[in-house]
Amino acid sequence: YHAQPSQGTEQEKMDYALNNKRRVIRLVLQWAALYGDLLQEDEAAMAFLEEFYVSVSDDTRMIAALKEQLPELEKIVKQVSEEPKAPQKKHKVLLQLFNASDDRAQKRQPIRGTDEVLFKVYCIDQTYTTIRVPVSSSVKEVISAVADKLGSGEGLIIVKMSSGG
User: Fold this and answer.
1) Buried b vs exposed e over 60-70: b needs ≥16 C-beta within 10 Å?
2) Considering Cα of 125, then 131, then 137, then 142, what sign does the dihedral take?
3) How many structural domains compose the chain?
4) Domain co-membership, 72 together with 133
5) How far apart are the first and last CA of the chain?
């Protein structure tokens, strides 16, 4: 964050420092936006964010051009630090629907509410289990099935993950 070129005029050194600082701030903002809920559980990450915010605040006194990024950084730091911490550790669960049979896909039959689908349930500790639920199941019913399978329903959340690739 504080890299300085060893050569060049004072203006070139300031431009270089400003561009590097902006890049680092953007990177930290993206990191915090993507992993905010995980960061609140990590004391070192929280300490880093707070220290980084103070450092950027100090730098805005000398480099006025950084002031434009300060409110966004402040918002992220406050948002991550103010989120309520659950008394118990959350179980982050990712559900992935997969085909029970390739034959069914080839026959192209209409899906009925009584049909069952199989979900892979991924836990934060890199393990997974499977559950079978009717297509017409509500989110509450899916969470209940997961809680029954895992033996605990405390702190369960459903995360939908998709990929353009």
Assistant:
1) eeeeeebeebe
2) negative
3) 2
4) no
5) 32
For residue 150, give both structure tokens. 């895992």
Tokens of residue 122, six digits: 């991924």
pLDDT of residue 49: 87
Looking at the structure, tell me whether residues 96 and 146 fall in a common domain: yes
Q: What is the DSSP letter of 80?
A: H
Q: Which amino acid is at 57?
A: S
Structure tokens at 105: 């896909």
Residue 37, domain extent? 10-81
CATH of the domain at 25: 1.20.870.10
pLDDT at 101: 47
Q: What is the mean pLDDT of each run of 10 residues along the chain (165 residues)?
A: 70 84 89 78 84 87 83 82 52 51 54 79 79 85 86 75 66
Residue with structure tokens 């892979």? 120
Residue pair 69/63 in contact by the 8 Å Cβ criterion? no
How far is it, in rounded angstroms, from Cα 165 to Cα 14?
Answer: 40
DSSP state of 61: H
Helix boundaries (H) for 69-124: 70-82, 102-107
Among 47, 81, 115, the domain-final residue is 81
Joined together, the tokens standing for residue 30 give 């993206």
In one-letter notation, the amino acid at residue 77 is V
State residue 156's pLDDT score. Answer: 76
